[in-house]
């Protein structure tokens, strides 16, 4: 009896220990970035795991750079545009692929999935030519286009899967009520697809926000950079100095919006919204 | 209010013929029930009328206007779905008002209609609730309300009671009958439950494998089934069927010999002798009497239902015979009974399952069929 209790307690301890290790593994880098960003540059190389005195000079330094502010603005514009375009196209495509029966539907689905197979590097030079031809080089438009290409496949797949789960009779009820496909999509399906849209939108946002390779390749001037590139290009007084303080401050600044977004939308990412639609 | 006419309506899915040459006239204000076993095409037929499926061949007319290519709202129909299909994110009020909103009716008429509909269906207190906060019966009423709100000419019901429990089903059945009386609109109702069909319908359409078996009032279908299929489908417990051989007996009809019941003359017209026929007798038309010794049929089971009892009788080959009797009855399991029946209430079906026609004017019958006690 006592042995079994001991075993249960040990199991519990082991479980929470594991959770603790995972948490530490996941959060520590960010925590250390926060700590570093709050230190004056003189204390930068003293190893400490606690903030003794809050020093905001790094933040002031970063935020006083017009290039960095422009980068934040660009990132916001690009990420929001990508999310909006991807959700609009994804939703309409998901309606067609999930709701309308037509020949070659499976082929289209597999093609869509196939597109997301290519690594970024493989399409980089080709895409560069496309962007040059479309005259989108060194503008947010080029980034929006290229990110949308990589975001759409999973957006379409996830939304199609959710769309298929919605009962047929719901759509038929809307048809009988006189709704056009667009009204059915926006007034009936979209509210029910909120969890899926929040999920895919968030993933698309994070992908666009973090992307580095395309952002580096398709932009030239500081005024058109996005945040990841801008941070990488923050330089110190000389070429031998890496300004860790401002880099960490900038990293924290651009991470916070993501954290806030996840916290807001994780409540939305709850299924069971269709409960009450059918039977019961 | 509107009449519906179907002329040789066909529906194919690929090469499968789901509906074959259905012609039907549904009068203004009539309550018609489509009934049949699952897979008989009754739901498809309803969806063809609703406009949710396209008609492959044939014409569908509503009030003498061909509506084959019109959308459901243009046809002026409202539909109640089996799963109700309420919009889960909208309140009861918005569910009912959705169609009106899309029809761009002005706010005042919309509110009037909604409150009127809600009052008829006793939903007044539930207007702000979401579907998930409603019971099954309430959801059902909201679904009916949503179909009614636009005042459609024709109301369609697709097995609306199949998700309700037994007692609620009886109650809702009565409410629908009452609603029909009150609204007076044409209603078409699909069910696989023959009790619903019998209790609700002005006329029943029995469907089998995509074609119409028989159309008629509940009484006509019960008393004069046109085929063995209809006879077996309508009525519970179902009609007893016995294989018999028969020969014509002149003006009197035909003489058949029934294993275990002897020879009997039925007032049915028959063309050829020696046909292998099927005799059909409803359980309430078999009259049991206590048997002596080893004669008659052995009682396999007695089902006591309070007001009546059903006897299940062993037949040498084939399904057990069911026989209804008043309860309490003197019969017990393992006992034996002899049976008699009224020849005028028995049915004969030929090889293909068609009913042999009744010889008219039963009062001119020469003599009551032998072995009958009535």
Topology:
The complex is a heterodimer of chains A (280) and B (374).
Chain A: H1 2-37, H2 57-63, H3 66-99, H4 105-115, H5 120-133, H6 140-165, H7 168-176, H8 181-192, H9 194-210, H10 213-218, H11 227-232, H12 244-266
Helix pairs in contact in A: 1-12, 2-12, 3-6, 3-9, 4-6, 6-9, 7-8, 9-12
Chain B: E1 4-13, E2 16-26, E3 31-35, H1 42-50, E4 57-62, E5 65-66, H2 72-75, E6 77-80, H3 92-102, H4 107-120, H5 136-148, E7 154-158, H6 166-183, E8 186-191, H7 194-200, E9 203-208, E10 211-216, H8 218-223, H9 228-233, E11 240-248, E12 254-258, E13 262-266, E14 275-281, E15 286-290, E16 297-304, E17 308-313, E18 321-326, E19 336-341, E20 347-349
Parallel strand pairs in B: 3-8, 3-9, 6-7, 7-8
Antiparallel strand pairs in B: 1-2, 1-4, 4-5, 9-10, 11-12, 11-14, 12-13, 14-20, 15-19, 16-17, 16-19, 17-18
Helix pairs in contact in B: 3-4, 3-5
Structure explained in plain terms:
Chain A is mainly α. In chain A, 72% of the residues lie in helices and 0% in strands. Chain A is built from 12 helices and no strands. Chain A is globular, with a radius of gyration of 24 Å. Residues 271-280 of chain A have low confidence and may be disordered. With 374 residues, chain B is an alpha+beta fold. Chain B has 2 domains: 4-232, P-loop containing nucleotide triphosphate hydrolases (Rossmann fold); 237-364, Nucleic acid-binding proteins (OB fold (Dihydrolipoamide Acetyltransferase, E2P), Beta Barrel). Chain B is 24% helix and 32% strand. Chain B has helices spanning 42-50, 72-75, 92-102, 107-120, 136-148, 166-183, 194-200, 218-223, 228-233, and strands at residues 4-13, 16-26, 31-35, 57-62, 65-66, 77-80, 154-158, 186-191, 203-208, 211-216, 240-248, 254-258, 262-266, 275-281, 286-290, 297-304, 308-313, 321-326, 336-341, 347-349. In chain B, strands 6-7-8-3-9-10 form a 6-stranded mixed sheet, sandwiched between helices. In chain B, strands 13-12-11-14-20 form a 5-stranded antiparallel sheet. In chain B, strands 15-19-16-17-18 form a 5-stranded antiparallel sheet, with no helix packed on it. In chain B, a hairpin with a 2-residue loop joins strand 4 and strand 5. In chain B, helix 3 (92-102) crosses helix 4 and helix 3 packs parallel to helix 5. The radius of gyration of chain B is 25 Å and the shape is elongated. In chain B, 42% of the residues are buried. Residues 362-374 of chain B have low confidence and may be disordered. Classes of the chains: A mainly alpha (280), B alpha+beta (374). Chains A and B meet through helix 7 and helix 8 of A and strand 6, helix 3 and helix 5 of B.
């Amino acid at each position: 009896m006592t042995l079994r209790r001991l075993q249960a307690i040990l199991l519990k301890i082991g479980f929470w220990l594991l959770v603790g290790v995972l948490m530490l593994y996941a959060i520590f880098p960010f925590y250390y970035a926060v700590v570093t960003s709050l230190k004056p540059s003189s204390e930068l190389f003293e190893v400490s795991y606690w903030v003794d005195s809050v020093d905001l000079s790094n933040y002031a330094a970063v935020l006083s750079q017009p290039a960095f502010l422009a980068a934040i603005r660009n990132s916001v514009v690009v990420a929001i545009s990508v999310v909006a375009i991807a959700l609009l196209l994804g939703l309409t495509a998901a309606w067609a692929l999930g709701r309308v029966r037509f020949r070659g539907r499976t082929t289209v689905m597999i093609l869509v999935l196939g597109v997301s197979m290519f690594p970024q590097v493989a399409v980089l030079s080709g895409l560069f030519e496309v962007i040059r031809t479309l005259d989108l080089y060194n503008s947010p438009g080029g980034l929006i286009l290229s990110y949308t290409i990589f975001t759409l496949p999973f957006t379409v797949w996830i939304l199609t899967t959710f769309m298929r789960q919605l009962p047929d009779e719901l759509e038929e009820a809307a048809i009988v009520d006189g709704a056009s496909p667009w009204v059915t999509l926006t007034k009936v399906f979209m509210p029910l697809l909120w969890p899926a849209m929040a999920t895919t939108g968030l993933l698309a946002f994070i992908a666009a926000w973090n992307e580095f390779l395309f952002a580096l390749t398709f932009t030239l001037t500081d005024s058109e950079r996005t945040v990841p590139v801008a941070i990488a290009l923050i330089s110190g007084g000389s070429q031998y100095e890496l300004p860790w303080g401002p880099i960490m401050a900038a990293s924290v600044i651009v991470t916070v919006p993501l954290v806030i977004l996840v916290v807001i939308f994780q409540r939305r990412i709850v299924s069971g919204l269709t409960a009450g639609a059918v039977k019961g | 209010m509107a009449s519906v006419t179907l002329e040789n309506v066909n529906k194919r899915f690929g090469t499968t013929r789901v509906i074959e040459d259905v012609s039907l006239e549904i009068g203004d204000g009539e309550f018609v029930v489509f009934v049949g076993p699952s897979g008989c095409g009754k739901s498809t037929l309803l969806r063809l009328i609703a406009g949710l499926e396209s008609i492959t061949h044939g014409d569908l007319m509503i009030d003498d206007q061909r509506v084959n290519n019109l959308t459901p709202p243009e046809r002026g129909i409202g539909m109640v779905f089996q799963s109700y299909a309420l919009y889960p994110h909208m309140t009861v009020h918005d569910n009912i008002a959705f169609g009106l909103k899309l029809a761009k009716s002005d706010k005042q008429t919309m509110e009037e209609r909604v409150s009127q509909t809600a009052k008829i269906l006793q939903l007044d207190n539930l207007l702000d609730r979401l579907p998930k906060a409603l019971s099954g019966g309430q959801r059902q009423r909201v679904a009916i309300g949503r179909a009614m709100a636009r005042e459609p000419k024709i109301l369609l019901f697709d097995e609306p009671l199949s998700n309700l429990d037994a007692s609620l089903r009886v109650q809702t059945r009565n409410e629908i009958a009452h609603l029909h009386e009150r609204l007076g609109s044409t209603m078409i109702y699909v069910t696989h439950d023959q009790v619903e069909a019998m209790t609700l319908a002005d006329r029943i359409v029995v469907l089998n494998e995509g074609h119409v078996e028989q159309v008629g009032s509940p009484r006509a279908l019960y008393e004069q089934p046109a085929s063995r299929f209809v006879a077996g489908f309508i009525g519970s417990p179902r009609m007893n069927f016995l294989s018999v051989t028969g020969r014509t007996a002149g003006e009197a009809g035909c003489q058949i010999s029934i294993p275990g019941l002897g020879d009997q003359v039925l007032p049915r017209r028959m063309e050829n002798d020696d046909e292998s026929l099927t005799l059909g007798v409803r359980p309430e038309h078999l009259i049991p009497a206590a048997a002596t010794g080893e004669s008659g049929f052995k009682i396999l089971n007695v089902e006591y239902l309070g007001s009546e009892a059903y006897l299940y009788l062993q037949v040498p080959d084939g399904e057990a015979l069911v026989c209804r009797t008043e309860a309490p009855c003197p019969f017990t399991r393992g006992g034996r009974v002899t049976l008699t029946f009224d020849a005028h209430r028995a049915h004969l079906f030929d090889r293909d399952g068609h009913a042999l026609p009744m010889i008219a004017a039963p009062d001119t019958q020469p003599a009551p069929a032998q072995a009958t006690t009535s």
